[in-house]
Amino acid sequence: MATLTRKQRELKDREAQILKLARPILLREGYQGLSMERLASEMEYAKGTLYNHFPNKEDIVLALAVESLELRFQMMESASTSSSCPRVRLVNIGAASELFASAKEHFAIEAWIRNSTIWDKASPERQQLIQQCEGRCMGIVAGLARDAVARRDLVLPQGLSAEELIFGFWSITYGSQVLSASSPSLAVLGITNPVSTIRHHCYTLLNGFAWQPIMDFQAHEQLMSAESNRLRAQFADYLANSVTH
Amino acid sequence: MATLTRKQRELKDREAQILKLARPILLREGYQGLSMERLASEMEYAKGTLYNHFPNKEDIVLALAVESLELRFQMMESASTSSSCPRVRLVNIGAASELFASAKEHFAIEAWIRNSTIWDKASPERQQLIQQCEGRCMGIVAGLARDAVARRDLVLPQGLSAEELIFGFWSITYGSQVLSASSPSLAVLGITNPVSTIRHHCYTLLNGFAWQPIMDFQAHEQLMSAESNRLRAQFADYLANSVTH
DNA sequence: GACAAATCATGACGCAGCGTCAACAATTGA
DNA sequence: TCAATTGTTGACGCTGCGTCATGATTTGTC
Lengths: 245, 245
Prior knowledge:
Two copies of one chain form a homodimer.
Chain A: H1 2-7, H2 14-33, H3 36-43, H4 47-53, H5 57-80, H6 86-102, H7 104-113, H8 116-121, H9 124-150, H10 162-182, H11 186-189, H12 194-208, H13 217-234, H14 236-244
The structure holds a DNA duplex.
């Protein structure tokens, strides 16, 4: 019977299945394209069953974001342990952030959850999970800055904490990624290669803070592309798979 | 008659009236809170009449954004002509940008239009208007950078155009503003004063590019707060009025 | 001032999509 | 074997967008 053949499919990790189905829809057709009825019918379940797993549509988006942020965290952690020199580690994290943003099916989710319409309707539990992810990411990078201070590679300017110093890099990276993704035709404005442009700014900012070892931009670029390749290989599954599927 | 008393109200600038009504709703209750029926009933018009002015709900949001960007442009222009020294002018524009972002009823609109769900459904005409505003803003700031180059206050690094140099400042400013507005509790992460933090980064970046005249952070701060006060006074009407009303 | 043409206003209607819930089915446990 | 519990279903209520036939108002013309 039809009922039986569906029952054979696991009942356990349906939540993961839902998310797996929802992610590409959200990527390809946006928030409008994702409807509970559609999700239900494509899964061959009734709508009510979905609501046994998620209290509302917004919570599905947050759940996707948790998955994505988990990936971001892993990439950042991998990048931050791939060297012993704090400045190099920070640059490597920059490469991780670039790579993450290039995977639109992950990065775009972050834009959705910063939308108050979505954030506010999701469950507090899920909201908290996201904040934890964010906190852990900040923890990695701020810790790294503190290492640099301990080693005397970096002197924090009067009035800036390690977290606040990192916030600048977070802002410029995230800001440029948002603008690149949403500003229709940066190229028309004269910005042809935003990624490389922002690399240049981060490099200048690092030198501006006199974060040792000072290097030239060539060396900076070489570090970034090397780490970028390493990460791309390490996380190929999570990046490529989810694009095609 | 009831019909007459409403007719007495101007028939001409109803579009402006609609926007005036819509803005505070959008600010206070978000995109969900803004409904065509509500807008219509609060204006004492039928829904169909609204659709004589705007093809859809999204277009209203873009129209609001055009108004806001117009204000941003004026503030930037005022800031950029309030000194003859390019570096000071750029810092003043930074103050304008801070001030603009502090007016949530304007800044929040920008977040909405970067949402593809909204952008894509709006009319091409309105989309184009927005892009023009953006272009004009970039024009001011990039022109300023070019002035600096002409005066030998600034040497563009190999591979960066004036626009690309400006893009860095745009990204860090905008990024920090988005994060401040949407990251629930930056303070928990250790960022207590994002605005002043980003001032510090911009200052460091300017020095990093060796943009003359090099100054100390004290001087930078003083410039910013002076310009901030000047702008606040000049644009008091547009900032305060729209908050209360 | 009378009448036609053009313009504008109206709100009932069709439709899509969210979330609920009473009814029903399956599973568990004794 | 028969509760009791747990899981599934889809029709239903409701909100809100955008349309359009109908009717009102204005404009233009003689």
